[in-house]
Specification:
Elements (H helix, E strand, L loop, with lengths): L1 E9 L2 E9 H16 L14 H8 L5 H20 L9 E8 L2 E9 L13 E4 L6 H14 L2 E4 L10 E10 L2 E14 L21 E7 L13 E15 L5 H7 L5 H35 L6 H21 L4 H8 L3 H6 L2 H20 L6 H14 L4 H7 L2 H20 L1 E4 L21 H8 L25 H4 L28
Parallel strand pairs: 5-11
Antiparallel strand pairs: 1-2, 2-4, 3-4, 6-10, 7-8, 7-10, 9-10
Helix pairs in contact: 1-3, 4-6, 5-6, 6-10, 7-10, 10-13, 11-12, 11-13
Length: 513
């Protein structure tokens, strides 16, 4: 068995001509024939006792050739691929038989190869890093959140309802005087001002007292999920059973002791500031890394095979499905929930999948150019890390993740480090603030740096990480995934808003694999 020729037939497509010699083929034919003769029954002979010549006469001398080829094919194909030195872009291999007779077998393997990458500059690149700053407002927001989490719920007495109160209500909805399905609920805990119900509903319960009956008149939004209710005027008859309010703890040293390991509020504030700073620094570092890798990708030349993009889309969709499962949803429910077509949903991942493939190819090309390798110690350390992460034995992880794949991840990470270490990184100059305009009405709060950063974040092009065993942890959120995060309640009411359908863009890249 040998590789006789390698021919490039198209961009990233090769034809490998493989031959199996007469002697090897004859031995394989003999082997499968001996096995088959034991099972063949011919009239006039007991099972397995029919003469070989009789079988050849009835079915032809080549009756077992196909079985012999199937016996030899896996080893012949693997040997030819290894000898060619071509790295496959996908595992699919097309087979084309040229000839098969007593003189041996000749066939072609049509394969898609990983593309050739022509690198541009990847050393000495330039990037700016945001100088992070923690605003007092950010610390105050975190403290307020901690107050909310530690608030007491107390009954409201001696006053009417206010925004922020929770009203325990019965309600039933009517359109044109007729009750509609899903429009009824009992002892429902509704936080007034939460936006849980359709616009205008909650506001009409403000200023009411426990024990009151309230008629709520609303109009369903034109984009409402129930077709028969879109744009319809509705009356909800409500009964307020009880009003409850949150009582926030005072922000003092006692609060700090109750909610943290710190003895004073000042120490707690410092800890919060440190965490916010660490998070902002991590984001700033990630943005620098993204910018540098983006320059590498922009400067390289490569023709990416469609099969690599499709495979990456498949992987991103599997990750998305895993995240849905963690939230108690499946893909079918999500598609119905958002009203998306499968084709459009899949297409939404394409652009980012192409970027992810290019990043991986660039990092692999740099690793090859710089002779970056993964040592045995590094491999074992990574196996141990993955085993601890998934609470598995290291040997189990090794059975799932091939050393070759893990080594590729490690060297890709080294390529990222090389890009960063050789880069010229400077502090970004703070943007000049426009003169504040005087306002006579309500003062508009300035956005903190963190809010701005959150609003302007781009899909991350992060370091590759080790491939994972079958059980995956939740990954970073995908754009358009917000609807999936709101798990439908066990008893869904029509009064409650349904998240608007959004186009799913490509899942943000948690790992560049």
């Amino acid at each position: 068995m040998s590789l006789k020729a390698t021919e490039k037939v198209d961009v990233n497509r090769y034809a490998l001509t493989v031959e199996i010699d007469a002697e090897t083929f004859a031995k394989a034919v003999e082997k499968v024939t001996a096995k088959a003769l034991k099972t063949i029954t011919i009239p006039g002979f007991r099972k397995g006792k029919a003469p070989r010549n009789m079988i050849y006469k009835m079915y032809g001398e080549d009756v077992f050739y196909q079985d012999a080829l199937e016996e030899l094919y896996p080893d012949a194909a693997d040997a030819a691929l290894n000898e060619s030195g071509i790295e496959l872009a996908e595992q699919k291999v097309d087979f084309e038989l040229i000839s098969m007779d007593k003189n041996g077998v000749s066939f072609k393997l049509l394969i898609t190869a990983k593309p050739e990458v022509t690198l541009g500059e990847y050393k000495g690149l330039k990037a700016e890093r945001t100088v992070v700053k923690v605003e007092d407002a950010e610390i105050d927001r975190e403290l307020a959140s901690m107050q909310e989490r530690n608030a007491r719920i107390i009954p409201v007495e001696g006053r009417a309802s206010q925004l922020g109160d929770t009203a325990v209500i019965d309600f039933e909805g009517f359109v044109d005087g007729v009750a509609f399905e899903g429009g009824k609920g009992e002892n429902y805990n509704l936080e007034l001002g939460s936006g849980s119900f359709i616009p205008g509903f909650e506001e009409q319960l403000v200023g009411k007292n426990a024990g009151e009956d309230v008629d709520v008149n609303v109009t369903f939004p034109e984009e409402y999920h129930a077709e028969e209710l879109k744009g319809k005027a509705a009356l909800f008859k409500c009964k307020i059973h009880e009003l409850k309010a949150k009582e926030l703890p005072a922000l003092d040293d006692e609060f700090a002791k109750d909610v943290s390991e710190f003895d004073t509020l000042d120490e707690l504030k410092k800890s919060i500031a440190d965490k916010i700073t660490a998070g902002k620094n991590a984001r700033a570092d990630g943005e620098v890394e993204n910018a540098l890798i983006g320059q590498v990708v922009e400067g390289m030349t490569v023709e990416v095979p469609d099969c690599m993009v499709e495979a990456r889309i498949d992987e991103n969709i599997r990750d998305f499905e895993n995240r849905l499962r963690y939230q108690g949803l499946d893909m079918k429910t999500y598609m119905q929930y958002t009203g998306m077509e499968e084709k459009d949903f899949r297409e939404g991942f394409r652009e980012n999948a192409l970027t992810q493939v290019k990043i991986r190819l660039a990092l692999e090309a740099i690793a090859k150019a710089e002779n970056l390798e993964a040592s045995e110690e590094e491999l074992n350390a990574e196996y141990t890390k993955i085993a601890e992460m998934y609470k598995m034995e290291a040997e189990q992880v090794k059975a799932v993740i091939a050393a070759k794949d893990l080594a590729s991840d490690i060297t890709a990470n080294k390529a990222v480090d090389l890009i960063k270490e050789s880069a010229v990184i400077t502090d970004a100059k703070p943007a000049k603030k426009a003169p504040a305009k005087k306002t006579t009405a309500k003062k508009v709060a300035d956005k903190s740096e963190e809010e701005v950063a959150e609003g302007e974040k781009k899909p991350a092009a992060k370091k590759p990480a080790a491939k994972k065993p079958a059980a995956k942890k939740p990954a970073a959120k995908a754009e358009g995934e917000e609807a999936a995060e709101k798990k439908p309640a066990a008893k869904k009411t029509t009064a409650a808003k349904k998240p608007a359908a959004k186009k799913t863009a490509a899942a943000k890249e948690e790992k560049a694999e």
